[in-house]
Amino acid sequence: MVNFIRVDGQLDGLLGTGGGNETTIQATYITATQTIFTLRTGPVDLNLTFFSPIEPSDWARQSLPFSYLSIDVTCRDGSAHSVQVYAHVTAEWISSELEATTRSSATRSGSIVYHAITRMSKTFFSEENDLARDFTLVFAALSSNALTTQTGPSAGLRGDFDQRGQLTNSGDGTAMPITPSYPAVAFALDLGSMRSLEDFLSDFPSALSRAQVLDAKIKADASADHADLVALAARQVFAAIDITTGSRAAIQGT
Fold first, then answer.
1. In angstroms, rounded to a whole number, what is the distance separating the alpha carbons of residues 152 and 182?
2. Which one, out of 17, 60, 166, 195, has a CA that is 20 to 30 A from the CA of 11?
3. Strand, coil or helix: what is 190?
4. Res. 60: pLDDT tops 70
5. Single pTM value for the model
6. CA-to-CA distance for 5 and 82, rounded, in angstroms?
């Protein structure tokens, strides 16, 4: 994932993604469910949170193969600043075979907008370098007037954001190999009026609250010497679980 922040027209890269200037990492926090980076650029501090819910009491939510990315920003000098953030993912997320042909799409449905990237030629139940050859990547957000989207070659998307602080809400659905254009799907969000697939995205506040309770319980139940290891292991254990069901008739009969 490539992330940028634009403060008063100046573009900075997040977590080493380039752009001429870089934010600096002030702190890093890791729990069983979250990895949080506290970053600084110019007059702005921000928290970049990668959140993978663990739902031991709700197997339906645990079965959803999604994670959250959230960003919150504060201005240290008390002044108003124009701030926009950008994130994109490329087709490299679904294939390590750079000659593979992929197609991107954008869909608005109800209160959400989501991008999908899929391989044009799928091989079911097969993988290459630990990447399945039959899955689709979904990149989604709740829709708002502050959110703009775009699909196409990655360099062009970043250029549009750098110049205007927003994207064009256009899409290039042409099937193309990963190289040389590195097709990407992107979101840009104006944090001045920030809002954050419907049920999953709208559940973020509740999911975060449940995660904080679980993080605290794991920390309290584990010894001081092993709390960090238990937190990391919990994420891996639940991520490795595939929840399946039998036939519809078998389900209805239970």
1. 8
2. 195
3. strand
4. yes
5. 0.75
6. 10
